[in-house]
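Work Package 4 report. The design task specified in the project plan requires that, given a folded chain encoded as structure tokens, an amino acid be chosen for each position. We show below one input record used in the internal validation round.
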């Protein structure tokens, strides 16, 4: 696959998402992918609003003012364009990872001048006092998700995402949400009200996000016409869910989705719960994809042996489950993701999230081949040369680099998230007990599973690895990843993102126990695994404890682990990593410009093919998606 850099936006590198094999799909599968992709794009405005109540207005303001580039001085225009790029990448004026607000480089006077001049030529927007405060005041609504609230605040009142209106955490105690995943909680006349996200139907009135959900339901209906029989029924439930908003329809959809294995598929709906400090509300996300048969043998081999890995997990026998069915697992080619999942795209996915669905029906596991390959390879050598001191460590990291990716991600998604069973004493979903710490603990558990099992001789027996270089490389790579992760925390003093809390928890635990260290030489800090087998024992100990915490719903133990190891870091080390990364142009994250499927029709209007056409930039992509949303 070709790696192509489209543009660099401060510390973000934008790559063109490489897609191979779409042309080999059947026409029906291509059309199915087209409509699933389109449904996903039509829902993208939802995540803007979920992130921050003012995000959609800010998006439209800045995308529109860029149309008046001929009337704005270039120096000011460049600053406005930079801010707009950051905004549409993050779907908010807050960073995607830390959820901390970013401030523009242009001044209030410069923006006022640009607006005044643009309005002479047709620009419709204006600046209000509130708008100015929202954009320029770094202390006003500065964090979307605050899991460590300051004194006098709780996790809801200290957070500024849009899931709760005039609600305190204490208001929710004892309140039973009928549709917790897809609703906003609002305090009206001193009464807590649940407002459901739905398009509306013949039996229910439209709810929040009805405009976008209607478009999504329409495109899903079109997709159903081209779906194979096994997929039609589950997509019907998805359409009904978007219309009625009833959780039972999403459950039925998930049952059909997790037990089917079509060539073309999608993740579509209110999925991940990281943005909500309570870990309850689902942030909108979508990804449309097809199977990558070139890599699937690795994923299928690990999935076929899921019971072996469960049996050889280090936790108590009473938390080990019987895998009734081989989990559905595939390497896939993404043709595009939106909402929370785009343009920052995940490398792997394990769904559904509901514990009862996992227990009764299993999970579907996805390794995103093109995202993993492009993001892992874009700056690998440059980062190794800067942040690894020993030539043998650089050689170790480079050995089988692209083979390790699918193994590690599949062990994380299939074996990690899919493993374990809950205590008989636990009534309900463990996330209800572990609350705001659940997501971080579950991500840590899945990572620890991958790190533990990568040493299993079974992988060598199955022909997936050849010797101990692969697991050693995985361990060193994980310590390396934790250290360079700090480049994302310039000006930020705590970790809030769940995956990164998980990484910090694991490595800081191992440092505390003595198997890992960051050492200094010639003024630079480097990662080191002191003892690989000792590190594996520490991995096993921590994994066993986190499995127990999840199985028993032990809130206090989970809180103590995250608080001790997952949140804080050495700020001097952070500053060093930020400076060194900037010096070599090492991006903090990768975003994607993705293909835009277009229908090819003959003279009679019959669909003859679907072709993939790429957007030219992040701004071009945001405008293209907005045009689809407005013109569908």
């Amino acid at each position: 696959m070709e790696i192509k850099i489209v543009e660099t936006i401060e510390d973000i590198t934008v790559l063109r998402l490489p897609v191979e094999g779409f042309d080999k799909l059947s026409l029906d599968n291509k059309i199915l992918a087209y409509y699933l992709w389109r449904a996903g794009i039509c829902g993208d405005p939802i995540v803007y609003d979920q992130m921050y109540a003012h995000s959609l207005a800010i998006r439209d303001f800045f995308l529109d003012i860029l149309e008046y580039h001929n009337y704005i001085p270039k120096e000011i225009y460049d600053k406005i364009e930079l801010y707009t790029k950051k905004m549409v990448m993050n779907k908010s004026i807050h960073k995607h990872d830390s959820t901390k607000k970013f401030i523009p480089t242009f001044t209030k006077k410069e923006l006022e001048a640009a607006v005044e001049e643009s309005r002479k030529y047709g620009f419709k927007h204006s600046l209000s006092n509130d708008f100015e405060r929202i954009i320029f005041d770094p202390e006003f609504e500065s964090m979307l998700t605050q899991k460590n609230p300051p004194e006098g605040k709780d996790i809801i009142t200290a957070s500024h995402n849009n899931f709760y209106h005039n609600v305190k955490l204490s208001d929710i105690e004892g309140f039973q949400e009928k549709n917790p995943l897809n609703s906003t909680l609002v305090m009206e006349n001193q009464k807590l009200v649940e407002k459901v996200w739905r398009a509306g139907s013949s039996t229910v009135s439209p709810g929040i996000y009805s405009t976008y959900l209607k478009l999504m339901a329409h495109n899903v209906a079109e997709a159903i016409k081209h779906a194979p029989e096994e997929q039609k029924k589950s997509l019907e439930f998805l359409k009904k869910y978007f219309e009625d908003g009833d959780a039972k329809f999403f459950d039925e959809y998930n049952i059909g989705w997790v037990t089917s294995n079509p060539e073309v598929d999608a993740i579509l709906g209110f999925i991940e719960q990281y943005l909500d400090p309570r870990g309850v509300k689902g942030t909108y996300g979508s990804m449309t994809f097809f199977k990558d048969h070139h890599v699937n043998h690795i994923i299928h081999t690990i999935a076929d042996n899921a019971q072996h890995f469960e049996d050889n997990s280090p936790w108590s026998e009473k938390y080990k489950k019987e895998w009734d069915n081989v989990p559905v697992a595939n390497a896939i080619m993404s043709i595009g993701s939106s909402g929370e999942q785009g343009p920052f795209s995940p490398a792997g996915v394990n769904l559904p999230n509901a514990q009862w669905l996992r227990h009764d029906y299993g999970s579907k596991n996805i390794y995103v081949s093109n995202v993993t390959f492009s993001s892992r390879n874009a700056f690998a050598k440059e980062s190794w040369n800067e942040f690894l001191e020993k030539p043998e460590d650089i050689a170790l990291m480079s050995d089988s680099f692209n083979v390790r990716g699918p193994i590690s991600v599949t062990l994380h998604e299939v074996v990690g998230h899919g493993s374990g069973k809950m205590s008989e004493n636990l009534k309900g979903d463990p996330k209800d007990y572990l609350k705001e710490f659940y997501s971080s603990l579950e991500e840590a558990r899945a990572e620890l599973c991958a790190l533990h099992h990568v040493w299993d001789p079974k992988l060598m027996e199955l022909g997936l690895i050849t010797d101990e270089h692969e697991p050693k490389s995985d361990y060193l790579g994980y310590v390396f990843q934790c250290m360079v992760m700090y480049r994302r925390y310039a000006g930020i003093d705590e970790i809030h993102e769940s995956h990164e809390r998980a990484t910090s928890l694991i490595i800081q635990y191992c440092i505390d126990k003595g198997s890992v260290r960051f050492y200094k030489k010639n003024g630079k800090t480097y990662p080191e695994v002191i003892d690989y087998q000792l590190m594996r024992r520490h991995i096993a100990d921590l994994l066993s404890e986190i499995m127990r915490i999840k199985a028993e719903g032990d809130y206090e133990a989970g809180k103590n682990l995250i608080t001790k190891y997952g949140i804080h870091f050495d700020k001097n080390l952070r500053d060093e990593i930020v400076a060194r990364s900037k010096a070599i142009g090492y991006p903090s994250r990768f975003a994607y410009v993705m293909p835009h499927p277009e229908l090819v029709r003959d003279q009679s209007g019959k669909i003859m093919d679907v072709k993939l056409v790429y957007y030219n930039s992040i701004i071009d992509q945001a405008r293209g998606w907005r045009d689809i949303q407005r013109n569908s």
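The chain has a mean pLDDT of 94. Validation will be extended to a larger panel in the next phase.
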